[in-house]
Amino acid sequence: MNPFLAVRLVSTSIHRWMYGFLTVPDSKTLQPSADLAESWETSEDGLTWTFKIREAKWSDGKPITAEDAAFTFNKIMTDEAAKTANGPAVENFESVTANGQELTIKLKSPQASMLENPVPIVPKHVWESVTDMANHDAETYPTVSSGPYFATEHKKDQYVKLQANPNYWRGKAKVDELQVIFYDNPQAAIAALQKGEIDLIGRLDPPEFKAIQNDPNIEAWNTDGRRASYLQINHGATTTDDKPLGDGHPALKDVKVRQALHYAIDKQKLVDEVWDGLAKPADGSIVPPMYKDFFWEATGDTKVTYDPAKANQILDDAGYKKGADGVRTMPDGDRKLEFRFSIHTDTPLEDKLAEYLTGFFKEIGITLTTKKLESSKFTEETGYTGLFDIAISGWSVNPDPEEVLATHLCSRRPTKDGEGGGTESFYCDETFEKLYKEQLTELDRPKRAEIIKQMQERLYTDAPVIAIYYTNDLEGYRKDRITSITPIPEDKGLLYGGSGYWPFYTVDVKATGASAAGGDGGGGSNTGVIAGVVAAVLVIGLGGFYLSRRRKSVADERE
Q1: Coil vs helix vs strand at 223
Q2: What is the DSSP string of 90-129?
Q3: Residues 340, 345, 350, CA angle at the centre, nearest 5°?
């Protein structure tokens, strides 16, 4: 619940409903539009940005000023723990100052993504007393918020309850209360939706989606998603001072081995048989095709297709010979090509993926053994200690992909003390770094998009990560409860997990009533009915509570 530390998709989604930002994605175009900043201007050299903060109130009635925004940014700039969630967003900030409703940000160099800043603005009068950000859970309720909702109750990994903010600058939301219920068991979540105990469910895997697809009472939601799924390869993990880290297999330092792995993967088969056709094979990199401006797709000789013969030839030519048992060894004969595949515990889809990859890699003389880890251990080994060979990974990408690109920078590797800003790959590549800096200062959007595509091509060919598929957004909601809801983007967009608050600001439901003696509600009950309340209550079930890492934490999909 601490937005400075919040790195799970469920947390960041809820914070989008709770907090204002300088700008938010437009519900139709996903381009930056006004939020707490109602207008802005920039100097000719692009180094000074001035934002006019709108006259509005926090949920506790106190006025929102530029001081709140300045405090938020300066806190991240000066407090190491506060950098956990969004540190890279302010790395290029020279100074941030406030004067009444005017916020001035001075940059070290021009920054093309200035209007895509992902930092939620917090109230200074609440947060200035926090001295130990790393251990501050922010579980004081009701929260003080500026967005459509504020949180009133929370039980870790069970539920969050939110109420509509009467002071929200756009006007009070139609729904009086949101309840977000977490399910460890996807089947239980589906059963709750079918029985009407929850109203909407997000982040489904194919088996759960198939279970609701033909239910006449449920709207099954299947659109292009904003998530790229990929394999993270330990190509020689190092710290920020370039010291070796972890115990990755030395063969994976060889780009030819990584490329051979890529040619050995039948992505269409993974889509058809692991994802039941509810995904798209990744012939690109880490930006999914729903973001048309920035999406890059390999063509011609650059494109890697399923070709085990070519993969075998690459390894043969590189000196990785097969032994009598069919397993290859290092060119010096010292060690077999036996890799670990790190996945999360209790994730059937990842188990299935592991089975297919094991078969694919066996065809090219490589042994793959599955290593199951609970979520925090998975994050630690694949993001900080480097104790892995290959791991499942992925990212829910924002409309501007700068943040996901930044997770592959040298600076995102752990320090020698094990701290870090959340690397996705332990990557540190001169070409990639140069392109990142170029796109950062390119204010012409089409030109910047071309640079970002070059960055994706570099990741694709050097293969510190191997994109395998882009998963569809699979959700469902009760037709008899939800009377209207607007996705983001409005044309075939997402509901839960979208890049803004719009779906849950616009959602309308039929009012729910319960007498003091009736209902099973309160305390995180899955019914979503609170005894004694007659109000518009929307109950959101997060089915499966999927375990995969986002930046630093691992109890949910990463973003």
Answers
A1: strand
A2: GTTEEEEEEETTEEEEEESS--TTGGG--PPP--HHHHTT
A3: 65
Both tokens of 427, joined, read 């990557």
Contact 439, 265 (CB under 8 A): no
Tens of pLDDT, residue by residue, the chain (559 residues): 999 999 777 888 999 999 999 999 999 999 999 999 999 999 999 999 999 999 999 999 999 999 999 999 999 999 999 998 888 889 899 999 999 999 999 999 999 999 999 999 999 999 999 999 999 999 999 999 999 999 999 998 889 999 999 999 999 999 999 999 988 888 899 999 999 999 999 889 999 999 999 999 999 999 999 999 999 999 999 999 999 999 999 999 999 999 999 999 999 999 999 999 999 999 999 999 999 999 999 999 999 999 999 999 999 999 999 999 999 999 999 999 999 999 999 889 999 999 999 999 999 999 999 999 998 899 899 999 999 999 999 998 989 999 899 999 999 999 988 876 679 999 999 999 999 999 988 989 999 999 999 999 999 999 999 999 999 999 999 999 999 999 999 998 999 878 899 999 999 998 765 332 233 333 332 223 222 223 467 888 875 433 222 333 333 344 4
478 vs 219: CA distance, rounded Å: 6
**What pTM, to 2 d.p., does this model score?**
0.86
Provide the H-helix boundaries in 223-306. 255-264, 267-269
306: which DSSP letter? -
Helix (H, G, I), strand (E, B) or coil at 450: helix
